[in-house]
Design goal:
This protein is globular. By secondary structure, the protein is mostly helical. The chain has helices at 6-24, 39-48, 51-68, 76-93, 99-126, 130-159, 163-166, and strands at 28-29, 34-35.
Length: 168
């Protein structure tokens, strides 16, 4: 595990701030659906630092965003899901990025974590029936999966040249 340097802590803090802005102000939010680019700062943390740091960015970004700019009631299950997504991205992206690893991470995240686990949390929180809610959320995953894949591929290629220079 990497030592937390001052540079890393500052960078992670900035990524948490970007996560909050993307999540609370620049995404489409309804009680049952959320479409946006909150995966970008989590991907950056995963790419450069690893699973622990990406989990911190995802979890802390969700927690602070929910406390500072609430959209609905705070629910720790969503924070757990965001943390899990960061850890997943860190495991897939930290050492090696290929189109297959990016595709696998996106599919596991969208059709595993987001579709099943987040739907469970929404069902639990709002008392909605799980299966009809799950079916209604498939569209969100179908929209976000290709979007995430394309953005992560582009960012991975762009970051390849700067990995050691910028975030050493």
């Amino acid at each position: 595990m990497k030592k937390f340097s001052t540079k890393m802590v500052v960078t992670l803090g900035l990524l948490v701030a970007v996560h909050i802005i993307l999540s609370r102000f620049l995404s489409i939010n309804t009680p049952y659906l959320k479409i946006g680019f909150t995966f970008v700062p989590v991907f950056v943390a995963a790419y450069f630092y690893g699973p622990v740091q990406a989990g911190i960015v995802g979890g802390l970004g969700d927690f602070l965003g929910a406390i500072l700019f609430p959209i609905g009631p705070y629910f720790p299950g969503f924070t757990l899901t965001c943390t899990l997504t960061g850890v997943l991205y860190g495991l897939f992206f930290h050492k090696k990025q290929t189109w297959l690893r990016i595709l696998a991470a996106v599919l596991v995240n969208q059709f595993g974590i987001s579709l099943f686990i987040t739907t469970f949390w929404i069902s639990f929180l709002y008392g909605s029936a799980y299966w009809p809610l799950l079916i209604s959320r498939v569209g969100q995953c179908m929209i976000l999966a290709p979007l995430e894949f394309v953005v992560m591929m582009a960012m991975s290629r762009a970051f390849a040249h700067y990995r050691k220079e910028v975030f050493a």
